[in-house]
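Prompt: Have a read of the protein record below and flag anything odd:
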Amino acid sequence: MRWLTVVLRRSVHRAIHAALCALLVVLPTRVPAAEVSPPELQCSAAVLIDPETRQVLYARHPDERRPPASLTKMMTALLVAEKGDLDRTVVVSERAAAVGETSMNLKSGEELKLRHLLTGAMLASANDAAAACAEAVAGSVEDFVALMNRRAAELGLENTHFTNPHGLHAEDHYSSARDLAILGLHVMGRAELRPIVRTEEAAVPWPGRPYDRKLRNRNRLLQHWEACDGIKTGYTAQAGRCLAASAYIDGWRLICVVLDSEDAWTDARVLLEWGFASFYKVALVSRELTRATVQVRGGVRETVQAHAARDVIAVIPRQARPEEPVLAEGVRPAPVTAGEPCGTLAVTMPDGSRETVKLVADADVPQSPWAQMLSEQWSLALLAAVLALAGGVLAHGAASEAVGARRAR
């Protein structure tokens, strides 16, 4: 039907589409354009994700349960940021100091700020620091592990289970590339964690010594690629070389996870560069730019201009063009009040699914005098009919009583 059609002239729509592309599409300048064909990787599992839309742009065995090694510490860091006071002083326990393999040489009784312990866990991948963080936040490693698994469930990490806060191998300690990528986007979403995971080198106090601990970030991409700004490395004999990496180019962030890789640094960079080169980010619907004309029945005007209530952002292949939104519901009876919903747009997403977006009226449209009169006349006529019916019922009742009385005589 004609009133279900989007009332946007072609010239206006093309201008809006051009403005969207100019303002909202991310076009990286430091990587060349490329075809959307999967890159060659040397890992057992991998995921590339856009953190804003949660779109998975690349996946290799994304839900396969694998040992995550020290990528586990992303959950430790997230919980410390969410539940801990980073400026609180922590006394390192004998149990935490005894956690072996990679460490920052903590001693039982040593006092450090939680922030310093977190820095040791994320930069130097110190297992003793991760254990000390866990005890500081939850009171014990066991209670902290319970928090880890509860938070994993809240985040929808269906293929993740933790038994420790550091990632040393354990039979029931596992995650997946997809789950770790989601965990990574939450880490990068914390303002207090982003500066830590992008730091190449930090100095942390060393009580009892005349010098500080020097902690160097194990993520080599930070030193060799300016776009990289995190997140976490991992390695055990069982897990192989693992890396969760974030890169930020021209206002657009992508996050990847590679597990059990022969060369995690190369795999991560190849995958991230491929993502920036092969896709672009676009607003399918924009609150500022998307406009539609909605029909108004019984108003002083026949139409009202409306804008989208929210943005709809998507990542699509560079050679593709997004489908235009269509008016799914575009008729509104008067009166219309500015700021209230007055219709809906249907938006086709890159995976073929559809989303609906409310349209919000830009102006008031009062009811027309003719519509008011008809409405009032209809109301009066209805009232008169009801009164007439009631009168008829009463009259019929009175007549029936009179006949009954005569018969009784």
Remarks:
- Residues 1-34, 378-384 have pLDDT under 50 and may be disordered.
- The longest strand covers residues 240-249.
- The radius of gyration is 32 Å.
